[in-house]
Amino acid sequence: MNQALQSRRHIKVLLAKPGLDGHDQGAKIVVRAMMEAGFEVIYTGLRQTPEAVARIALEEDVDVISMSSMAGSHLPFCRKLVPLLEQAGLSDKLWMIGGNLPAQDHAALRALGFKGIFPTGSKLDAIVDYIRSELK
Amino acid sequence: MNQRAKPEIKSVVNESGIEVKPLYTAQDMEQSGGAGMVGLPGEYPFTRGIHNLMYRKQPWTMRQYAGFGNPGDTNARFKYLIANGQTGLNVALDLPTQIGLDSDDPLAEGEIGRVGMSVDTLRDFEIAFDGIDLDKITVSLTINGSAAILIAMYLAMAEKRGYDIKQLRGTAQNDILKEFIGRGTWIFPVEPSIRLVGDTIEYCAEHAPKYSPVSVCGYHIRESGATPAQEMAYAFCIAKAYADEVIKRGLDVDEFAGRLSYNFNIFGNLFEQVCKFRAGRGLWAKIMKEEYNAKSPGSMWLRMIAAGGGGGLTFEQPELNIVRGAYYALISALSGTQTMALCSYDEAYTIPTEYSARISLRTMQILSDEMGLCETVDPLAGSFYVETMTNQMRDKMVEIMAEVDAEGGIVKLVSEGSIQSKVSAQAYRMQRNIESGAFPKVGVNRHRNDQEEDHPVEFHPYDEDDTRMQIANLNKTRAERDDATVASTLAQVGKDAAAGVNVMPAIVAAVKAYASVGEITKELVKVYGRYQEPIRF
């Protein structure tokens, strides 16, 4: 892929670590991949509440709201987050989630509005390419 | 590839950055420093093992990580594992417990009992260990941020059941510095966190001298992206930081160093791993003897659990992880560890089921009972390759430790986030190498199945009722305890923390009054504050 030949809009991504989970190795890898792709990335660090994720997304005026969840609490967290994002008028942003997300939960995540679902095993370039294609 | 080029032997460099040759001879061994550090098992510098007969006398302890739901659920799993031949326990606690939140804290919602057992008060420990003989089965608590409280709880529980605390064995992970690097269950800022570790070491040296209050973890640093040599070097830097904290208080090194233990990771190149352990044993002994003037051999021992690590397991074709686990167990046995654990094949998906936990246990039992691994100590010794690589790995660790010192020491580097940034950059490069196929991973970047199954493992169910039960039990305990004693013991925790004296006696008193993990943590936070994570890329 010849990135230099593509004229691209500036893309700003929020990557949050929701809940109490401390496994941030994967999140930090994805941050680096996004930075290398030329995105501006706001990485929250650990232990973000749904309120904090919605607030930072609004304040930072991001195009993409993404989360990395490894410890199994993605559904209860997202159920609390979604109404907050809607109230904040962030429904038109691209919502993404990655990490340890069992296949049986993907439909529920999609129904909640998470369009991009990247379970363990996803490739970094697939994540980056997906964001570019969605925000074209 | 250029077809016309002459076929050449590709150069191989292991993860730690050491070149691997196609053949080793006596000359390589001499050039790498010779046999000076080899010695005999049970003798300084302990490269070949900390005991003279090792597994011939006693096979490694088998200690699978287990815990989920409420203490009753976990007690049943413990008994299942013990009935199946497990010889030690390694307790998984849920995230609220690990970061000092009670089960009824709003931040704990959705996380109760999810990745480990939920613990609020001493009552939960009474239930979790009910019917388990604490003299026969040693218990390791995987707890860090709130370790001071859970150590106090464990000692209080054992005392209540009539055990002599002076004779009680067991381990707490209690390695907070690595939590800042990876794993992330910190609570307080770096400085008071180290002081708290110092408090537990000092308290146990006096009151529970056979209890291991700290298990320094290279394991999670490796999971975060460190090389095998960095894993061990950083762990030694961290152990030295704790030792310095306690020595500063006037303790003699031999009063506590014999109870320091380690937790290391196994995945990757077999020989690099085995040599890592052999090199580390010699280096730690040398550090304790030469830098710390330890006199007792026990202070020089690298006592450890070596665990087949999640970092090597794959999401793809998870059944292959059973095979990987067996190789990790083999490496672990060849390395001369005291204790072994294996991540189960389904751990890339879920917490292990009874079935997968039993497979891990049986893997270790096959090794100890069928394969002859317990018969001869340090069987790889004397190989030109193994001895050369052991020397080179030790040199590499010394070099990494010197770099840390030159850059201001491990506490500074962790506080400013630079170690975190370094290992995370390495993890990124490794991920890119795996995705490109430059770093081989079977089932991931080669030998893939055309069709991956959608549901390749059985998921451990998460029971929402456990949360309600746990909160109900907490409320019941709160209603039954003596409020005045709880209030006065909690106030004492705060006072002692503010005065900068050892907080363990006050925490033990509060725990015995059934004060909760969350209540005690709040008292400490008032004085210590909370950690603010440095974000550096």
Secondary structure elements and their pairing?
The complex is a heterodimer of chains A (136) and B (537).
Chain A: E1 12-16, H1 25-36, E2 40-43, H2 50-60, E3 64-69, H3 74-87, E4 94-99, H4 106-112, E5 116-119, H5 124-134
Parallel strand pairs in A: 1-2, 1-3, 3-4, 4-5
Helix pairs in contact in A: 1-5, 2-3
Chain B: E1 12-13, E2 19-20, H1 26-31, E3 61-62, E4 65-66, H2 71-83, E5 88-92, H3 95-98, H4 122-128, E6 138-142, H5 147-160, E7 170-172, H6 176-181, H7 190-207, E8 211-212, E9 214-217, H8 219-223, H9 228-247, H10 253-256, E10 260-266, H11 270-291, H12 297-300, E11 304-308, H13 320-335, E12 339-342, H14 354-370, H15 384-406, H16 410-416, H17 418-436, H18 464-480, H19 483-499, H20 504-512, H21 517-528
Parallel strand pairs in B: 3-12, 4-5, 5-6, 6-7, 7-8, 9-10, 10-11, 11-12
Antiparallel strand pairs in B: 1-2
Explained architecture:
- The complex is a heterodimer of chains A (136) and B (537).
- Chain A is of the alpha/beta class.
- Chain A has a single domain (13-134), classed as Rossmann fold (3-Layer(aba) Sandwich).
- Helix content of chain A is 40%, strand content 18%.
- Chain A contains five helices and five strands.
- Chain A has helices at 25-36, 50-60, 74-87, 106-112, 124-134, and strands at 12-16, 40-43, 64-69, 94-99, 116-119.
- A five-stranded parallel β-sheet of chain A has the order 2-1-3-4-5, with helices on both faces.
- In chain A, helix 1 (25-36) links the parallel strand 1 (12-16) and strand 2 (40-43).
- The radius of gyration of chain A is 14 Å and the shape is globular.
- Chain A starts with 11 loop residues before the first strand and ends with a helix.
- By secondary structure, chain B is α/β, with parallel strands linked by helices.
- Chain B has one domain: TIM Barrel.
- Chain B contains 21 helices and twelve strands.
- Chain B has helices at residues 26-31, 71-83, 95-98, 122-128, 147-160, 176-181, 190-207, 219-223, 228-247, 253-256, 270-291, 297-300, 320-335, 354-370, 384-406, 410-416, 418-436, 464-480, 483-499, 504-512, 517-528, and strands at residues 12-13, 19-20, 61-62, 65-66, 88-92, 138-142, 170-172, 211-212, 214-217, 260-266, 304-308, 339-342.
- In chain B, the strands form three sheets. In chain B, strands 3-12-11-10-9 form a five-stranded parallel β-sheet. In chain B, strands 4-5-6-7-8 form a five-stranded parallel β-sheet. In chain B, strands 1-2 form a two-stranded antiparallel sheet.
- In chain B, helix 2 (71-83) packs parallel to helix 4, helix 9 packs across helix 15 (384-406) and helix 11 (270-291) runs parallel beside helix 13 (320-335).
- Chain B is globular, with a radius of gyration of 23 Å.
- Chain B starts with 11 loop residues before the first strand and ends in a 9-residue tail after the last helix.
- The model of chain B has no long low-confidence stretch (mean pLDDT 95).
- The interface between A and B is large, with 33 and 40 residues.
